[in-house]
Amino acid sequence: MKIGIIGLGLIGGSLGLALKKSGFASKIIGYDISEDHMDEAKKLNIVDCNASDMVSLIKSSDLIILAVPVQYIETLLPDILDSIENQIVTDVGSTKLTIVNKVKEHPKRSNFVASHPMAGTEFSGPQAALPDLFKGKVCVICDREESNANAVQTVEAMYTSIGMNIVNYRSDDHDVHTAYVSHISHISSFALALTVLEKEKNSNRIFELASGGFSSTVRLAKSNPETWIPIFELNRDNVLDVLDEHINTISQFRTLLIKKDFKKFYQLMEKANNIQKILK
Amino acid sequence: MKIGIIGLGLIGGSLGLALKKSGFASKIIGYDISEDHMDEAKKLNIVDCNASDMVSLIKSSDLIILAVPVQYIETLLPDILDSIENQIVTDVGSTKLTIVNKVKEHPKRSNFVASHPMAGTEFSGPQAALPDLFKGKVCVICDREESNANAVQTVEAMYTSIGMNIVNYRSDDHDVHTAYVSHISHISSFALALTVLEKEKNSNRIFELASGGFSSTVRLAKSNPETWIPIFELNRDNVLDVLDEHINTISQFRTLLIKKDFKKFYQLMEKANNIQKILK
Description:
homodimer; alpha/beta; Rossmann fold; 6-phosphogluconate dehydrogenase C-terminal fold; 8 strands; 13% strand; globular
């Protein structure tokens, strides 16, 4: 199957590598607004060739993957659906509701499968792409009843071929649950980085002491704001909801420290330990 | 050199494995308040033999490592210094000031080297011990001028033999800097786990969406409260200091989301990105 990937960053690039490796793609055609990304993707064998524009990418592809930041998925998706004939279109956006609402009434809506492969690293760009990024991870397919059976089946087969496990959510649920689990983790990590940079002015000390747990907890704070600002923007209400809870929880730890109530502090830590039963 | 390790958990156990592997130890003698830990340590080849009590461990060792939770280091250290002749004693405690103050006037103070190897995982007990846990990590030696030259040299040689890099802090500085970098990371991670457990009642959703950054950010929330409560207790004032800053920072993110000030939000994320220059 000929696959066109629009957006050759970490996710688009990794999909290119993974789909060639799995054999699902007979050919990968790339397009990116950045010429440098296209050159890099060609050099790294992420794509077999690059298209000169989106229209020609669409013409030469059976399946089109939109792997650009979420606000551009929103903008580009209607145009892409305008241009396709029988091709299938999917996206990789970290938010879903505003995207699907944008094409709700589009006559080609059923050619589109809203998806979110839950994988990533804190790095970005084609040079960060990894062929095994998706292996063993979960891909969320949203509102599957809105897509035609062939489109869903093809997109699922694509993600399955690169080792992903499929789960099905509604778009609005997806945005709530990703805010509650993934988006809050990013804000927490960014806040931790800023806290430590503010308090610990001696960067040697940070470097020396980072192995005491700081470096893994702060990993996400290396993530690209270009990717994440639009996610927080589009999913603001759900993020605010879980952020309020997070501030309450941290403030509770503060109160217990002030009151020296280490018994209650211990109980909260034990409760938090339950997370290991879920994550295994 | 014959090394006695008191406390055969993650850190004590890993030291046993590492010091045998490096050849620095000709013999490892173990002691733990838990019989199970001692049996396990023997079975896992962490120790060559176990002592029946601390006095006999001290008698048969040239160097004694105290690898118990910090509040027990405080309690045991004076007794151990009472019992030694020319042996060297060191500890691995995550806080330092109250420990060194406890033995400030002890006639054998100079036989003691206060140290903190900055390494660990979220797991505990001898079965979690890893021979390469310390490789490439930093070991903080505190108040080196309070220890005799031979003791410092021996302890440094021990940590160097297992691949650690030595840095020198004052005990009070150590406690400030570890609060600012390591202890706050643990509180942040525990709070994140509680937040997500509270908001996301469907544990399947947590499991499915964890690869979106949650699982690494929450890793430390699996840590043992038995180890960490005494650390927060002994280093409470410094932890509160950085915790206040952390609450301010997260609250600032909240305010910016409420005001939809994504420009300022972006600038803060960019500032947080600087952490990657320090951590490399």
